[in-house]
Amino acid sequence: MPLQPLISFQEEFLSGNPIRKEYIHFSEINCHDLDVWIGRISRTVSLEFLHEILFTILNELLVNACKANAKRVFFKERGLNIHLETDYSKGIPMFKDAFGHNRKSIFALLDHSSYQISLEAQNFPNFIEFKVRNNAKILNEEKNRIEIRVQSSSKYKNINDAYKESVDNEESSGLGIVLIHILLRNSGLKNQFFELITMDDYTEVIIRIPKLLIPLEQQNQIRSLLLKEVDGLPPLSPQIQKLIQLSKDKDVDWPKLAAEVQKEPAITAEVLKIANAAFFGGHTKVTLVVDALKRIGLKNIETIFLALGARKIMNSRYAKQKSVWAHSFKTSLYSRFLGQSVHDFVRYSEIAPICGLLHDLGRMVLLSLDLSIIQQIRVLRSDEANEISEWVEEFTLGITHSDIGYLIAKKWNFPEEVIDVIRYHHKPWQCKSSNLSICKMIYVSDILANTNRGKGNYYTIEPEILENFGIQSETEFRSLLERFKNKFEEHKDEFEELFN
């Protein structure tokens, strides 16, 4: 079945209309489709950090619903009454064996039965609701097993503990049910998020994901602190501002611009270093600033000055930025590789890398949050882990690093292409300007650069965007990633020196 266009999918979901999927049976062959569907929903409502968890939960519930239906057709085919305790005890070992080793035959029985499974998602003002239903009444044995898993979730302090102890088996580990209880228990909701409905003709599990993890008043207080931090950032230095102004002139006076650069030894050194790097095709060394500026090019030089000015301020103000610059640097290079690899994006292979260097400016401010505030978030969420996911932090705070970066970029009068990349690098489909292609490049490059940190994979990228780069399968994605990784390692030292 063709994938619904992204914009119409999002509009339909945000309107509050339920969106629905139906299955006769569910197995690993349905996982890719489910992953894409969940990805689209999570991206639509800015719950990207829940993508993997939601997939685990819904996959678990769908597999369990499939097993429940399969159990009934299997018992009927064997002439056993599933509601009789003696028949159940006799038939369940046979069913486990058949489901584990001869699943196709059971699925064939389901294909000719009236049993089915439905998955529904609906957007509400304060939460997202998922419903998994199968048209069979739950057995007491099945209901007891669910209740045991719900109770077992209380012994885990966090999601990591549940993952570590989960073990797959033919009856399923119940990890999805445990995960949803941990996640939403830590958000302060204990009785509203999981509901089991049993009727004579169907069984339904309802999962509700809240849109607020901490009280709105406290969220607004933390948001205000972040906005105050942005307001407190100093302007770019007068010399940087003058250089930017000169570089805006289409009929730039190169000797005059070079003379202004040379007034600042640090800027002079940076310009020469950049011009002589492979990044700008520096095969022969230039020693004159005017030649260096011409090599960098008029369309790049303004953003280079911006990057130098921004880096000086951010590094002097914040202490924990090494990892952010390292990721930005990697994203920058990956966007260059991407532009060189895909014909339609070659024209952006110089400007995209510079935008990539600045795309995460907002994260630096987010990471500057006072440790006592971070501890407060942990207490409010009952999260005792040493690390808090950056996505969870942003979701909890109610403001993303893209929002913060956008405010910084506007404050410092960045060019529109840089502002758009900072604002839309996680949601390029929202960009309505001519900078859409650059936003798409940084979106894909950012996720590619994050794969080594476990923060992205083929399924977390919007399929429509992947198609723009000729990526139609996970195999093609992995092949591209491997090429980029090798290329990055090959030139890493050179490029790290360039932006250190």
UniProtKB/TrEMBL annotation:
Q: In this record, what's one Pfam family?
A: HDOD
InterPro entries (alphabetical): HD/PDEase_dom, HDOD, RNase_Y/CdgJ
Coiled-coil segments, which residues? none
PROSITE patterns in alphabetical order: HDOD (PS51833)
The record places domain HDOD at 233-428
Full protein name: HDOD domain-containing protein
Species, as recorded: Leptospira ilyithenensis
